[in-house]
Structure formats: structure tokens, C-alpha cells
């Protein structure tokens, strides 16, 4: 490949922005590979054991801080943002009704890994063909979507897409935090973004205070062992009994720190069809979901990120939610019916739920406060 001039690279970045928009990405930025300064904080986080059972985070450490080792010849990284907040999000109603399941808003549509990887591959193809036509040789790019040791949030921050908030998620002035991130590592010295977003969290600690399990141990540090998203998605064993009542009706993920964040009042729902509510998640009472056999679970979660937790964790999570909900004949009957059908792990949580339903707990003060905040603070249909 003949070395393109600065002017030619600048023209290419403008084209990349246009192509990215046409592919459904809400924003795009360009980063260099200098990430070594993030290593001490990451290692301290690991040493504290805040990664829980996610042992994969202990491996391939050098690749996180030297992207050129992950994809040889990488010179720069294209970082993209894709908004996912669905229309009719119904935050408050799902949290306020303990008989209904709460599913993180990112998971009510199609699996974002599939959507974004396909779009990034299309972007890589466009760049490759352009370089072949204009520079005499195709470019070499590799897309990543939460699928390799990539520091996606620090990269996105360097690329000018936002700043890392106190809940450890990336925040953007226009979109809050309701978006996915993806990366395209490429062998082109693209002009990097010189303007960085200013951290605008200020003195706000709403996300720390609202977390049901106090998983945000201090600003910018999350203990996965207590995080409901980790517990319901990544963790494959028994969930500590002290944490079960705090999970409430959240059966897949948790959005509380995002729901309370003032910056998310700026976010607009996406028109991306792949991220809208699937019909199966429009009405999801816990008793019905618990009654699914494994075949029904697999059929209803085809193409959904929920499928990856598997049937056992699905049953475990719903058992906890039922135990936190109102005592009813239907709830007691389905728990007893499902006992002995999946595994000892599920039975343990079913037994706990049955015991809980003898004296159903009142909704936690944090959940009630969050619901009130959503209803009064978010300018969209929350009910």
C-alpha cells in the first residue's frame, strides 16, 4: 500500500463518518494505541477480586494494553457507538410490579453482538475497497464487539465518544449511556480525535446511592461480586443468600445506575428495529417464564443475548425473583412443579423462594426511590 498523505487520510475519516452513519452507528471516533496508563488501575481491580469468577479477565493482560498484539499491524482504532434504548421502555412499571420480570433494556431485542459485528464488518469492507481503489492495496481491519481483551471504554473515551462515569459506563452528552460500543482495529494511521469529552459527573453520586447491592464500592470502581448484572448473567453458581432479596424482580441484568443518571434524561429512543421490544418480552410475568421448559426457552431466546446464560441460570434467576414477589397460589405451584426438573442448583434457589414466600419481603427502599425518580425525571413513556 502506498503511504496515503495526511489530506487523503483526513478525507477517508470523513468518509468513514458517513459510512458509519449509513450503517446505523450514532457516532464514530478515532483513537491511538496508547493505553498502558490504564494498566495499574486494572491490575488493582483484579487484585481486589472485583472480577468475581470471570477468570478470563486475568488472561491475556498484555493484549488489553497493546492492541497491536491483538491484531498485528494495527496502527489506530475506529470506535463506534450504537444507541439501543427501545421505544416504550416501561422502566417504572417493570420494576414496580414484583410479579413481572425486569430484563435489562439492552436485551429486549436482538443480540447486539450479532448486529454490531455485521455492521462493523461492512464498514471494514467499505474501507478495504476504498483503500484498494485509491492507495493501491486493501486495508487490513478486524472488528471487535465485546469479544476479546479490548479496553472498549478507555478506547471510546480517547476517541472522543464520551467520558467514563462513576458507574464505570461511558457517558455521552447526547445519548447518556444507552448505547453499545464496538471497535475496528486497522492498519491505517488515521487522524486521532484531539478533543476529549470532559468528565461531567461533578459531585453527583446518584448511581452509587441507588445500586441495590452497593456494588459501586467507590466512584469508577464496581465490585462484580455484588453487581446484579454479573450475578444474573455471568455468575454460574449459587447466588449468596444475603444478595437474593436485593435482586428483586431483575432476572437478566440491571439498569438502576443508568436509570437514575441525570445524563440519561438527554437520551432519545433508537429507531433501530433490531433493538425494539421483541413480542415475547412485551408481557413477561414470572410465573409464565418459570413454566417454560428448556425447548421453549431456547426457541424464545433465539437470536437474543439472553440465550447465552442457559436454561439453568434462567430458572435460578426467576426462582429468586418469585421469592422476592408476592405470595400466590400460582407462584407456589410453579416453584413446586419445577423443583427436581433442572438441577440441584436450581432446587436450592427454589427452596429459598418457597421459604421466602411464607413471609414475602416488602419492596426495598432503593427500588421504591428509583421508581419515583424515573416517573418524575425521565421525559419518556416509562409506564
Automatic annotation (TrEMBL):
One term of GO molecular function: cobalamin binding
Protein name: Epoxyqueuosine reductase
Species name: Neiella litorisoli
Job of this protein: Catalyzes the conversion of epoxyqueuosine (oQ) to queuosine (Q), which is a hypermodified base found in the wobble positions of tRNA(Asp), tRNA(Asn), tRNA(His) and tRNA(Tyr).
Chain positions recorded as [4Fe-4S] cluster 1 binding sites: 201, 204, 207, 261
Record: residues binding [4Fe-4S] cluster 2: 211, 227, 254, 257
Family: Belongs to the QueG family.
Keywords: 4Fe-4S, Cobalamin, Cobalt, Cytoplasm, Iron, Iron-sulfur, Metal-binding, Oxidoreductase, Queuosine biosynthesis, tRNA processing
Active site: 146 (proton donor)
Amino acid at each position: 500500500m502506498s503511504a496515503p498523505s495526511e489530506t487523503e487520510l483526513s478525507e477517508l475519516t470523513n468518509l468513514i463518518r458517513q459510512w458509519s452513519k449509513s450503517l446505523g452507528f450514532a457516532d464514530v471516533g478515532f483513537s491511538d494505541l496508547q493505553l498502558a496508563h490504564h494498566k495499574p488501575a486494572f491490575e488493582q481491580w483484579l487484585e481486589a477480586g472485583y472480577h468475581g469468577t470471570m477468570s478470563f479477565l486475568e488472561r491475556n493482560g498484555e493484549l488489553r494494553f497493546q492492541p497491536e498484539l491483538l491484531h498485528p499491524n494495527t496502527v489506530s482504532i475506529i470506535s463506534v457507538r450504537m444507541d439501543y434504548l427501545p421505544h416504550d421502555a416501561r422502566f417504572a412499571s417493570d420494576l414496580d410490579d414484583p410479579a413481572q420480570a425486569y430484563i435489562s433494556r439492552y436485551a429486549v431485542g436482538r443480540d447486539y453482538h450479532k448486529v454490531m459485528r455485521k455492521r462493523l464488518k461492512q464498514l471494514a469492507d467499505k474501507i478495504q475497497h476504498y483503500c484498494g481503489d485509491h492507495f493501491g492495496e486493501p486495508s487490513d481491519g478486524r472488528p471487535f464487539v465485546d469479544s476479546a481483551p479490548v479496553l472498549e471504554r478507555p478506547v471510546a473515551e480517547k476517541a472522543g465518544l464520551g467520558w467514563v462515569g462513576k458507574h464505570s459506563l461511558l457517558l455521552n452528552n447526547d445519548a447518556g449511556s444507552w448505547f453499545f460500543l464496538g471497535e475496528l482495529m486497522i492498519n491505517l494511521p488515521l487522524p486521532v480525535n484531539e478533543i476529549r469529552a470532559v468528565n461531567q459527573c461533578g459531585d453527583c453520586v446518584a448511581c452509587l446511592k441507588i445500586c441495590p447491592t452497593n456494588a459501586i464500592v467507590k466512584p469508577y470502581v464496581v465490585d462484580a461480586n455484588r453487581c446484579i448484572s454479573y450475578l444474573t448473567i455471568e455468575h454460574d453458581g449459587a447466588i449468596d443468600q444475603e444478595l437474593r432479596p436485593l435482586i428483586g424482580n431483575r432476572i437478566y441484568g440491571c439498569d438502576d445506575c443508568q436509570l437514575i443518571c441525570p445524563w440519561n434524561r438527554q437520551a432519545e429512543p433508537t429507531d433501530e428495529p433490531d433493538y425494539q421490544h421483541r413480542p415475547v418480552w412485551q408481557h413477561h410475568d414470572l410465573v409464565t417464564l418459570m413454566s417454560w421448559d428448556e425447548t421453549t426457552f431456547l426457541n424464545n431466546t433465539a437470536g437474543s443475548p439472553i440465550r447465552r446464560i442457559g436454561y439453568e441460570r434462567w430458572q435460578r434467576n426467576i426462582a429468586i425473583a418469585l421469592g422476592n414477589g408476592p405470595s400466590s397460589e400460582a407462584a407456589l405451584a410453579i416453584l413446586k412443579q419445577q423443583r427436581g426438573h433442572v438441577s440441584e442448583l436450581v432446587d436450592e434457589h427454589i427452596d429459598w423462594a418457597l421459604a421466602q414466600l411464607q413471609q414475602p419481603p416488602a419492596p426495598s427502599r432503593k427500588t421504591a426511590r428509583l421508581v419515583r425518580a424515573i416517573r418524575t425525571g425521565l421525559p419518556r413513556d416509562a409506564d
